[in-house]
Amino acid sequence: MSVKEFPAGTSIIQNEQPINALYVITKGSVRASYPGGELYLLKGEVIGVCELNYDSHFINYQAVEDTTLAVYPCSENRLVELFRSKPDLSNLIVNSLFRQLRDIVDQYEMSKFDCDTFYQYLMKSYSEYSRFTSKHSLTTRVLPELETVTELRLEEDVPNWVTKYYDQLQRITRSISSKAQIADFIYGMLIKASHDIYYVISICRELYAYKADIVNLLMNENRLDFFDLYASVLYKIGAHDEDSTAITAALGTMMIQLESQDSIDKDMYKARIKEYKEKLASLENATEAPTVTDSPESVKQDLKDSISVILSYSECDKEVAANFRASIDKFNKLPDKNATDDSCRKLRLTITKLFYQVYSSAFIKSLSDTNVPKIVKMFFNFGYVDERLAGMENAAYLYSIVNSIPSDPSKGVYTVYEWLKEVYEGRKAPSRNEFDNDYPAYVRELKTSGKIAPGDETKLLNDKKEQVLFELNNMVSSVNKMTFGRISIFSPVFLEGNILKDLENTLVSADMVNKSLENIRSIDFGAYYRETLYSNPDVGIGKESIDIEVLPDVILMPNVGVRGVMWQEIEGRKRTSPARMMVSIFEMEDLNNILVRLTGEYRWEMCKRIQGARWNDVSEPSLTSEYFDYIQFYKKNRDLSADAKDKIKLSMQKAKNSFKEMFVRDYESWIIYEGTGSPRLNKVARTILFTHCPFAKEVRNKLKINPLYKDMMDRYDIKLSQRVHHLDNICQKLKNSGVEIPKELEGQRTYLEM
Predict the structure, then answer these.
(1) What is the pTM of this model?
(2) Beta-carbon contacts of residue 174 (< 8 Å; ≥ 6 apart)
(3) Which helix (H) or strand (E) holds 175?
(4) What DSSP assignment string belongs to 387-404?
(5) Which of 1, 32, 727, 734 has the greatest number of C-beta atoms within 10 Å?
(6) Whole-angstrom distance between the N-terminal and C-terminal Cα of the chain?
(7) What is the per-residue pLDDT across 481-511, written as a single tens digit (0 to 9) for each?
(8) Average pLDDT of the residues in 209-225
(9) 564 CB burial (10 A radius; 0-12, 13-18, 19+)
(10) Dihedral of CA 554/558/563/568: which sign?
(11) Among 26-35, 167-176, 526-535, 569-578, the least confident range
């Protein structure tokens, strides 16, 4: 036995640290914590007794006050001998185990109760919010994540017999007078209990994740949350309305709920509360409820009966126009336009079908029109149809910006209208459809199925109008729904109820897109580089692999949405063509996070494209094959601790067993956290990401001092030096021959220096 001392606040043991001893607290106290729970160990308690069955700790231990520990090595032979030679110590260890087990089970039961209570609180809060908006004739906003929240359902749960079993077992061990005679029994019991404790804690982790999702709905950094829903109602009705007291009370209750939650970002919480209190004080000092500034009468007059302007311009079929107008009028009369009942769902489907028919007719006409009306441009770029559905203030804002939308095709950022014109004019090929067929494949399919005559194939392949209609009726209609994000309530019509933030602050610009992409590339410098072959026989270069950067085309879809879509990684078979990514023109979520996610999807799909049928064959190393192998066999991986395996299991459940989704989540952590020096991944995932998505030189230099990255960086530097040496030899030969270095090789040098 040896003795160790730890000052107050010191970390004693961290999660995943190897288990090599038991620690008896002889002085002081210790906080033991894990996702979803914590307990305090006092003098006489034993650290590590709950984890004996594993190679590494799954509980964190921190000294609460100045603490002294007696250290006992915990190999099986040593512990059994210890139990035989020191019955009193054996008794202390066993009693400590039972106390900790009981506390952990109690925390599990409390967490489960909290999850049920939190869910009921969430549903009641939304019901109350809806009542307030209805009473004050305000738009009821629908949070995108609210649709996915369900009552707690655990695939596996803690058996009811666990508590009673260990209560009885404790009585049995207490009744045995000589612990020395049953040393092997005690050791086996500790191992069995350790397994059960780990199982309970793994369930606690699921409960913690469930509750964290609800906490995130109550308040998050994107402001798509309940706190903002309630606060926005209060700001609109003022502090002197009869309902203001009830709303401020509800916000106060929400603050009490949130401030005690470990999963919430404390700095974000404090900033939001400070902002709220300042606005509340301002409202209380106001003598009247706030009023909204009316739009100029001339704008209101221009916007009046917008649907007539659109239908008249489109010159679509009269029956289509009449049905579309009738459907919009019926939709406008609904009290809840985002209702999920069958009649409302069917009406939205009807509107969607008619919307694209009108859109097609109007777009084709606009191709030969140099003076498209502003309202029709609003229809093309925002999905705007009706001033009543959009809300007059929102319609006026769209009217004010429609001639100056901050897209920029020269920088690869297009409005959907600009994109469709690019397709029509032949500068861009139509995108693949949802069955992954490009336009030529689609035409061949029409021919094969007998839907067109054999002689019509060539004509159809060269028909610009048919190409743009293919793009509109396939990619645009599908992606518009996907980027909107709430598929069950989707309609392509611009609707006030879908606006979750100020429109001016959510309008996506080309500068914003390019700044986000630049941020990603400053961490993952090779994100959009593609390996290709370069040959120049005139100067003596046969075939050399070089990397060239091809940034994606980003298309702004005509909706108020919360998602991004990585539609295709290349155009046709040409590997040096841009990927196609889509985001909403009014993006309610954080644009940078969305583009990080799309970049992760792009990396996965591009690797699959390059590897072909062998994308998951680990005998041919690649990002997808190594990651697939890692997830498929994680349970047998000795480089992963029990805690890491449990986290993977939980992540796979959230990812619905999708390997791609798992990778994208890890890639997000790689860019957002690991790239800024905050480790989040396990050792295996980190190695795969660093191998295939290495950090830029500046990031590598900052992380070199971190032992988590040292070995990986050393291997990377060796491989990099080999590639640089090879390139130097080629360039030197060219210089010796008096040949100017080709710009392709200069570009490769720049890439290798990143």
Answers:
(1) 0.86
(2) none
(3) helix 161-175
(4) HHHH-HHHHHHHHHHTT-
(5) 32
(6) 52
(7) 999 998 889 999 999 999 988 999 999 999 9
(8) 92
(9) buried
(10) negative
(11) 167-176
Angle at 321 between CA 316 and CA 327, to 5 degrees: 145
pLDDT above 70 covers a percentage of the chain that reads: 98
Alpha-carbon distance of 335 to 350, in angstroms, equals 18
Quick: pLDDT tens for 271-301.
999 999 999 998 888 765 555 445 678 898 9
| Identity of the amino acid at 674 | E
Nearest of 222, 167, 218, 202 to residue 54 by alpha carbon:
202
119, 214 Cβ separation under 8 angstroms: yes
Rounded to whole angstroms, how far apart are CA atoms 85 and 455? 95
Q: Which amino acid is at 300?
A: K
Phi, psi of 368, rounded to the nearest 5 degrees? -110, 20
Residues 6 or more apart whose Cβ sits within 8 Å of residue 229: 126, 129, 141, 143
Look at residue 537 and tell me whether its pLDDT is greater than 60.
yes
Tell which phi-psi region holds residue 622, choosing left (phi > 0), alpha (psi between -120 and 50) or beta.
Answer: beta
Helix (H, G, I), strand (E, B) or coil at 63: strand
| Buried-state track 471-500, b at ≥16 Cβ within 10 A, e below 16 | bbebbbbbbbbbbbbbeebbbbbbbbbbbb
What's residue 715's pLDDT? Answer: 92
Asked whether residue 179 carries a pLDDT value surpassing 70, the answer given is: no
Q: What are phi and psi of 33, to 5 degrees?
A: -135, 155
pLDDT for 573 equals 79
Structure tokens at 498: 């879908």
Tokens at 158, concatenated:
């803690």
Structure tokens at 497: 């109820």
d(CA 68, CA 23): 9
Question: Residue 11 carries which DSSP code?
Answer: E
Structure token pair of residue 718: 């060796």
pLDDT at 292: 47
Across the beta sheet with 30-34, the strand order is 11-13, 60-63, 30-34, 37-41
For residue 213, what are its two tokens?
């999702």
Distance CA 385, CA 558 (A): 12
Overall residue count recorded for the chain in this entry = 754
pLDDT tens-digit readout, 226-235: 999 999 999 9
- DSSP class of residue 740 equals P
Distance CA 562, CA 147 (A): 13
Q: Which of 356, 377, 367 is nearest to 309 (CA)?
A: 377
Phi, psi values for residue 191, rounded to 5°: -65, -45
Dist CA 661 CA 656 (whole Å): 8
Cα–Cα distance measured from residue 20 to residue 78, given in angstroms and rounded to the nearest whole number:
11
Closest CA to 600 of 619, 631, 624, 634: 624
Count the alpha carbons within 13 Å of 108 in the hemisphere toward its beta carbon.
24
Say if residues 585 and 508 touch (Cβ distance below 8 Å). Answer: yes
Looking at 404-418, 579-593, 654-668, 729-743, which range is the least confident one? 729-743
Residue with tokens 């609707």: 495
Q: Which two tokens mark 133?
A: 């908006």
Q: Within its chain, how far is the Cα of 452 from the centroid?
A: 43
Average pLDDT of span 187-211 = 92
Report the relative pairing of strands 60-63 and 11-13 from DSSP bridges. antiparallel
Give bridge partners of residue 72 from the DSSP assignment.
22
Distances (CA, A) of 603 to 449, 498, 528, 689, 697: 35, 31, 8, 11, 20
Tell me the two tokens of residue 296. Answer: 């100029």
Angle at 458 between CA 453 and CA 464, to 5 degrees: 115
- The DSSP string of 371-433 is S--HHHHHHHHH----HHHH-HHHHHHHHHHTT----BGGGTEEEHHHHHHHHHTTSSPPPP-
Is the Cβ–Cβ distance between 338 and 142 less than 8 Å?
yes
